[in-house]
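User: My instructor asked us to take a sequence, write out its structure as tokens, and then describe one feature of it. I'm not sure where to start. Here is the sequence I was given:
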Amino acid sequence: MRDGGPAAHVRGPTVRRMLLGARLRRLRERKGVSREDAGYAIRGSHSKISRMELGRTAIKERDVADLLILYGVTDDAERNALLRLAREANARGWWHRYSDLIPSWAHPYLDLEEAASSIRTYDPCQVPDLLQTEEYARASLAIRDQIRGGAARAEIDGRVAVRLMRQRLFARSPRRTLTAVVDEAALLRFVGGKGLIQGQLEHLLRVSESASVELKIVPAGRTSITSAGRAFTVLRFHQRTIPDVVYIELLTTALYLDKPADMEAFARTWRRLEGEALPPDASRTLLANLLRRL
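Assistant: Let's start with the prediction itself. The structure tokens for your sequence are:
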């Protein structure tokens, strides 16, 4: 697809919608068509075009075909590539079989995480999802579900399966990187008991040796406290037409931020966090010392 990036390598309907929307926006602007006129051409409104171009709504193949006519796209290869992307953007994600166990506001994140080339995450309270052992994941999900009103064992099993699948998808993609900043205090919380935490710390030591994982720990003795009091994740994509996204999960919903002002604020916060954290080698030494003291 011309100047649309390697869409063939992108997985997940959410990111495909974002890629398609960005491409349609460039075509519209190049042709000098207003959002109002584009909306009229597909029996919609300017707000529908805006949602389509941001990748925030399902995109019908018929609407794409009509827009391509309006935008003067006559090249068969370009048209076919965009129409194929429209079909793929409406496909179900790998997580669909578990969709009834996952909050609807988390569905887009699963697609975004799978497509991200760079994942930067900070958590002051627990080990990040992609670095958890199965036992730790099960214990932490059980605690969270108790707060939300409780869940059956089968539901927790399904959520654990999703978390482990996310880890496998990351491990299969050598071009992707994960940088995690974790507070030492989070590693000292005996979620599920001493034996479980020992296994988790040993796992962190192993995975932190991977070229794709960079683990940095903020020591408990550091007096400087960053302004980030809540866990957040920053996702970056190979396709630069897709903006960086900050994901913040709350108790009953989540925030997806991608405006430049938001990104700059979180970039400053991330730099502050990395300044407070130990470098990877020193973080592994801290982990080894924690294990010896257990």
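For the description part of your assignment, you could build on this observation: The chain is about 50% helix and 10% strand. Try explaining in your own words what that tells you about the chain.
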